[in-house]
Amino acid sequence: MTDIAHHIPEAILASYVSGTLAQPFALVVAAHVSICEDCRANLAAHEAVGGALLDDFDPISITGDLRNRVMAGLDDVVPEPVRPRGDDIFPTPVLEALGSKPPKWRSLGPGAKQCILNAGKEGSVRLLHIAPGFAVPDHTHGGLELTLVLQGAFKDETGRFARGDLEVADDDLEHTPVAEDGKPCICLAATDAPLKFSAFMPRLLQPLFRI
Amino acid sequence: MLGMIVDEHKILDGAGLAPILRQARHACKISRERTPVTSAMSTTFTEQTEWMLRVRDARDRDAFAMLFDHFAPRLRGMLMKNGFGAAQADDVVQDVMLSVWRKAHSFNPERANVSGWIFQIARNRQIDVIRKDRRPMPEELAMPESTDIDGEQVLGIEQEAASLRAAISRLNPEQRDLVQKAYLGELSHSEIQAETGLPLGTIKSRIRLGLERLRHELKGER
Question: How far apart are CA B76 and CA B93, in angstroms?
């Protein structure tokens, strides 16, 4: 847990706190914070900025009715939803996105599988399962891509990424992540644009595979 | 401009405050029972922290009423600035304050300050209202089994949160407005840049040091 070397960039964390970060990225941020002490503290610091702003807001007086309603509501018994507990691979927010069921993997070609968690206008987020020694096909990006390693490790032109490490890729990065020997590499990957696989699959097929 | 930044650093470094704070921290190794909380409890923390702990540990309604009287009008101000109508703002205030009561068990003053913790609940509720899908949230940490509170750490967090607040209030009105818009989600960071030509980095440099020091406290590194 303390070995995490690649963290959430400041601007992305601030965006998460403000609620403007697109849903697919917000899931990656929540997953990383679940297993990264440093970013948890950093998140709380950004929330404290929000708290400082809240403190400074001109109070607008509250009518007695609202106060009474809230005080009366204290007696209501509202069962709190029980959140799944993160396991050795999947942190709580990922389990929630999976509906607490095991991922349904679909082949992406040799050594690679994916399980799409969410795809919409804001982008998409998926789990990737890469067999040891296999590469995620060489691809370039049409936008921002966040990749969080949940199990195993991969290496690419920019470094080594193991459990908890977050890789931030944008338009400029053309890279070939290769899974290390050992356990299969499982990643949570979010993007706001379709990935453009340059070597692996003709672009025309991409909509079919939703990648 | 440069003068302002230098000046701020001086304030944030708190040359005069540091020794006093250090002393206060050493005098503040607090151990208290989680339930029930007695009236003998320390009053060295901010009122808000004390109220919150009384709500958490003793389900104290009077303390909750104090929290309500402090935060509800400010939440209302924030929501209405955010474009909520009065009735809708009231609904959200109600939900947020009831969440404060119901989620109090997960408040840990060694890891968060009260205002930041309530801000986060309020933003979540707002996002729920505005969008269909909920914002994914990190796993909550299990509360420590020990009932001891590291008073030193709590004081450190409170102190740095106060410095951060001071740094924000020293921004000029336009810059403060931008920070507000950024954290209240009214503008994306790129929109802020486009609107004013002012990179957020410049604004952030004014609060960066405060963030840095608060983060340091939140990690419990000293």
Answer: 7
